[in-house]
Amino acid sequence: MSTPIRTRPVDEYITSGSPEIAVGEVNWTVRIKISFPAFKSRNYRLYFIGQFISLIGTWLQIVAEGWLVYSLTRSAFWVGLDAAAATIPTLFLSLIGGVIVDRYPKKYILLFTQISAMILAFILGVLTVTGAIIVWEILLLSFLLGIVNAVDAPARQSYIIELIDSKNSLSSAIALNAGMFNAARVLGPGFGGFLIAVVGVGVAFLLNAASYLAVIAALWYISTPMSVSVTKGNPIKEIADGIRYAWNHETVRLLLMLTAVASIFGWSYATLLPVVAKEIFSLNASGLGFLYAAGGLGALLGTFAVSAYAKKIHPTVYIFGGNIIFSLGLLVFTFISHIPFALILLGIVGFGLISQFAMTNAVIQHNVENTMRGRIMSLYTLVFIGVSPIGNFEIGFVAEHIGSEFAIRLGALVMLVFGLVVFRCRKSIHWNA
User: Fold this and answer.
1) So what's the pLDDT on residue 15?
2) CA-to-CA distance for 144 and 320, rounded, in angstroms?
3) What value, to the nearest 5°, has the Cα angle with vertex 259 and ends 255 and 263?
4) Cα–Cα distance between 426 and 409 in angstroms, integer?
5) Which of helix, strand or coil describes residue 419?
6) Residue 224 burial (CB count, 10 A)
7) Which of 146, 187, 288, 351 could form a disulfide with 89 if both were Cys (CB 3.0 to 4.6 A apart)?
8) Alpha-carbon distance 18 to 27, whole Å?
């Protein structure tokens, strides 16, 4: 006679990590919740699904827009300028966005920003489908979307902690957010390349507009407290308080500096992928999609590593190990012309980059006070997105005058050297899990 399997409630099972079977749960579901504890929260599950669908549409537009700009201008500089137009507003407005996020319910802020982004994508799609699109219109719409993102990005970053049931799940939620972005990066570009080849770039823009409906619906059904963190006061003083707090907090200061350098000299390589696809590998739009997807697939593996093992491995291993993996992988990528090898290297690049950024974000959020969360995440948005126009201008200028391989190679070297310098201060990075 066989011995019956003892059962326990799901939450107790997940907390203990025991191999017993939980009541009412199939084994694969339990395993997912053990590896990704953020999924225990209904609010986070809703948000994840809606945001994932929307991000697939976003990547459709990223691929289509880069291809459209390069097709209209045949210039790497204009591709970089378009990317810069989308991020320049973050440089000047993200700190104001942080004050807004600390003053008003994040759910309503996100509903407003997502609806605004949907309208802009729809306008871009209509102009493209009708054949009326010109380069300055693309730049203008990118700039307006950048204004929206200057508020949306810190709101999304600081909203995560309100979506989960326990702060212990924060690292998992942040890693899953990064994974969501990169899973969309795997699916979106391949689909986008196919759409461009079959029906044109305008349809990709319209599908992106439609994809926002998913995250809008998810936000509508999410139930979170409508409380805010601070009393309304002088916004300049509130910004100054946030900057002072970040500067005086050794861990936050160090990681924000590392993020800024990585954003300028590391992440900007993606801006030149349309140029690399055409000039180095002689690929069409579908081939460009595969280049983006390869990096996204590697980033997915990095997401799993961060989410599943964040409590077992010290964060500096992810941060500095990811920096080295990314930099060396990107350096090797600039010296090869064999497409299969290039795809493997971009996967390695994606793994390293997301390991560094996801864990950096998690460590910062674990260290900051709730009353400062919106403003600190606006500073993170500033150094992650806002300073990237500098990188976009730099890499576009160098590529135009010296070559795209050298431009990417230079950025990887700078990122590697600075990462090694900061590594000497690794004992100053505290993990308040």
Assistant:
1) 40
2) 35
3) 175
4) 26
5) helix
6) 14
7) 146
8) 12
Distance CA 267, CA 385 (A): 10
Say if CB 175 and CB 310 are below 8 A apart: yes
Dihedral sign, Cα of residue 149, residue 154, residue 160, residue 162: negative
For residue 430, which of 250, 257, 161, 168 has the smallest C-alpha distance? 250
Q: Tokens 């996967």 map to which residue?
A: 347
Return the closest-CA partner of residue 157 out of 366, 380, 388. Answer: 380
| Chain segment 339-357, per-residue pLDDT in tens | 889 899 999 998 998 888 8
- Asked whether the predicted pLDDT for residue 132 surpasses 60, the reply is yes
Question: What is the spatial distance between Cα 202 and Cα 354, in angstroms, rounded to a whole number?
Answer: 30
139 token code pair: 């730049």
- Bridge partners of residue 8, in order along the sequence: 22
CA distances (Å), origin 314, targets 229, 310, 360, 430? 30, 7, 12, 10
Residue 302 pLDDT class (50, 70, 90 cuts): confident
Residues belonging to the chain: 433
- The alpha carbon of 335 is separated from its chain's Cα centroid by a whole number of angstroms, namely 27
Place of tokens 């949907």: 118
- Contact (Cβ atoms closer than 8 angstroms) between residue 156 and residue 110: yes
What are 54-74's pLDDT values in tens digits? 988 888 888 888 888 888 888
Which has more pLDDT, 77 or 398?
398
Largest CA distance in the chain: 79
Q: Tokens for 36, please give them.
A: 């990704």
Alpha-helix residue ranges (DSSP H) falling in 199-249: 201-221, 235-248
In order of their start, the domains of the chain are 1-35 (no CATH), 36-428 (1.20.1250.20)
Closest by CA position to 363, among listed 406, 413, 322, 410: 322
Distance between first and last Cα of the chain: 46
- 361: its two tokens: 């974000």
Provide the token pair at 147. 């204004």
Highest mean pLDDT among 7-11, 245-249, 300-304, 314-318: 245-249
Q: What gap in Å lies between CA 291 and CA 342, rounded to an integer?
A: 8
The DSSP letter of residue 229 is: S
Q: How confident is the model at residue 75 (pLDDT cuts 50, 70, 90)?
A: confident
Entry pTM:
0.70
Question: Cα separation of 377 and 316, whole Å?
Answer: 20
DSSP secondary structure letter of residue 383 = I
Phi, psi values for residue 8, rounded to 5°: -140, 165
